[in-house]
Specification:
The protein is of the alpha/beta class and 331 residues long. The chain has helices at residues 25-36, 73-79, 104-123, 157-176, 197-207, 227-237, 258-269, 296-299, 309-322, 324-329; strands at 16-20, 40-45, 63-67, 85-88, 127-133, 179-185, 187-189, 211-214, 221-222, 224-226, 245-250, 256-257, 274-277, 290-291. The strands form four sheets. It has a seven-stranded parallel beta sheet, with helices on both faces. The chain has a three-stranded mixed beta sheet with strand order 12-9-14. Mean pLDDT is 93; it is low at 1-12.
Amino acid sequence: MPKSATATPRPSTGRRVLVTGGAGFIGSHLVDRLLAQGHEVVVYDDFSTGFRRFLADAGHAGCRIVKGNLLDCERLRRALDGCDLVAHLAANADVRGGLDRPTLDLEQNTRATSVLLEAMRAAGVDRLLFSSTGAIYGEPSVFPTPEDAPLPLQTSLYGASKLAAEGLISAYCHGFGLRAWIFRFVSILGPRYSHGHVFDFVRKLRADPSTIDVLGDGRQRKSYLHVDDCIAGMLRALGDEPDPVAVYNLGHDASCVVDESLDWICHRLGVEPERRYAGGARGWVGDSPRVELDCTRMRALGWAPTRSIRASVESTVDYLVAEPWLLDARR
C-alpha cells in the first residue's frame, strides 16, 4: 500500500491505526498515547465537535489528519489504506438532546458504524476498538451491572443507537471474520472534556456564581472515570485477542451522587451558589438515575483505575478554568 507523503516508516512492532473522532475528547488522548507507543495514526474527523488544538501534540510525521464525514464510505476506505486497526470513537454523544433531533443518533452512531464496517471490509482491515456506553443497559435491575446483564427496555435514543451499533459489529465479526473489542464506558472526565454535567456546572457558575440550576433532585448516582484510565484500559484489553468479539465494561468501582460532584466543583471554584432543583428522579427523559458498572472482567486483565472520582472531577474543573476558550466554543 502507498504511504502518505508525511508518514515515516512504520516500526516493525508498531501498527497503523485509524482513529475516528480523533480530534475529540477521548479520541485525542488515544491518539497521543498511540503515538507515544511508536504507532502511526490516521485521525479521521469532521471537526463538528472536535478541535484541531486537541491534536497540537500529535503534529508530527507519525500522524496524518483526514477531514471527512463518517458517512463517506469511499473517503473512509482511502483513509484506511495501510491500517491494521480502527479505533471508532466518533459519535453523537449529546444524550440529553436526542429527542430534539431524533435521527441524529441513528445517523452518527448506528449508520456511521455500518458505513465504517463496510469501508473496513473493502480495505481488508479486520481489527476494531469500539467505544460503546453503559447507557445500553437502560435502567437495569442489577447493580453493579455486568456485561451479561439482561437488557431492559431502552430509555434513550443514544443508548439504543449504540446497542444497534454493537449488534452490527458482532454480526460483521461472525460473518466476515473481523475481531472487535467493545467498551461500555461510564462518563469519562479529564483534560479536553467538552460536554457533560461538570462542563455544564462550570460554565453556569462562571457566568453566575450565585445560583445553580440542577436537573432532577441531585440524588442521581453515577460512576465516572478519568480519561487516562480509560485509555489505559482500552490498550490493556488490546492484548487480549477476542474470538470474535470481546465486551468490557470500563468504569470505576466507586460512584457519587450529583450533589456530591457539585460540592467538589463549587469547592474547587471557591463559590457557594444557591441550588435550584428541577425535581424528579431523572435529569431528563432517557437519563438513567443510577449507573454503576461491574468491571470485574476488565480488572481480570490487570487493569485498575488510578484516580478517585473526586480527583477526576477536580482535574476536569482545573482544566476548564485554565482553558476557558472551550467553555465559550461549546455555546
